[in-house]
């Protein structure tokens, strides 16, 4: 697991960790059941507080991406496929919302947007 944390980001460090781990899980880089670094080890590698990593792991666990087995470690969750699909849908919605806003600002008709979506979807 290769995480890149930047102090120049507007996102807090724990959110950067959450986002990158989610992306690794969703793109298949991290597989179901695969162990992930302990909080202490990740904090040490990133030179950050264990509390920051704990906050990130708690968020990931709450969202169903990871699970912690007491005394054994933390693992990529054996997914709730519906949850992963919902996360993908949420990401698509963000882009659609941006596209619709641009269309509205520029007087582009909804039928034209639908036509474009169908065109991109079929390629």
Helices and strands, with pairings:
Elements: H1 13-26, E1 35-36, H2 39-46, H3 50-62, E2 66-69, E3 73-76, H4 81-105, H5 110-122
CATH topology of the largest domain: Arc Repressor Mutant, subunit A
Largest sheet entry = 3 strands, antiparallel
The CATH superfamily of the largest domain is identified as Winged helix-like DNA-binding domain superfamily/Winged helix DNA-binding domain
- Succession of helices and strands: HEHHEEHH
Write down the overall geometry. Answer: elongated
CATH class wording of the largest domain:
Mainly Alpha
Residues in helix, %: 55-70%
Taken as a percent bin, the fraction of beta residues is 5-15%
End-to-end CA span = 32 Å
Low-confidence stretches: none
Largest sheet strand order: 1-3-2
Question: What is the number of strand segments?
Answer: 3
CATH architecture designation of the largest domain: Orthogonal Bundle
What is the number of helical segments per DSSP (H or I, 4+ residues)? 5
Provide the residue-averaged pLDDT: 91
How would you classify the helix and strand content by structural class?
mainly alpha
* Total of domains: 2
